[in-house]
Amino acid sequence: MQSELIRVLTLANTEFASKGLQILGYFGSFARGDERADSDLDILYELQPEAYRQYPGWSIVRLLEEVRQKLENELQMPVDLVDKDSLREVGNKYILPELIHVA
User: Fold this and answer.
1) Alpha-carbon span 54 to 93, nearest angstrom
2) Are the CB atoms for 78 and 38 separated by under 8 Å?
3) Whole-prediction pTM value?
4) Could you please report the per-residue DSSP string of 18-39?
5) SS3 of the chain: helix, strand, coil, percent, to 5
6) Model confidence over 47-89: pLDDT tens digits?
7) Residue 84: exposed, middle, or buried by beta-carbon count in 10 A (0-12, 13-18, 19+)?
8) How far apart are CA 35 and CA 24, in angstroms?
């Protein structure tokens, strides 16, 4: 399953790079290998300046929804997107060490 996740996320990275969104990797139960049938996929992303130029203000939500829907359709599972800039001390301590990088 991990190789399929990396493949899909790498392809999505290529697709969304021109829009200024970079998928850094995934974390949580899939990264630890203890996912269940009802688990969602937690994805860490980063927005580049190009994203804010193409999607000013609240329209950036459209880009995030486009990415989430594409990944959910491809992977057939719920996806949560987490912005790297939103991580605080706890997130940096627990999320970054288990991150499976795709970029």
Assistant:
1) 32
2) no
3) 0.93
4) GGTEEEEEEETHHHHT---TTP
5) 60, 20, 20
6) 999 999 999 999 999 999 999 999 999 999 999 999 999 998 8
7) middle
8) 20
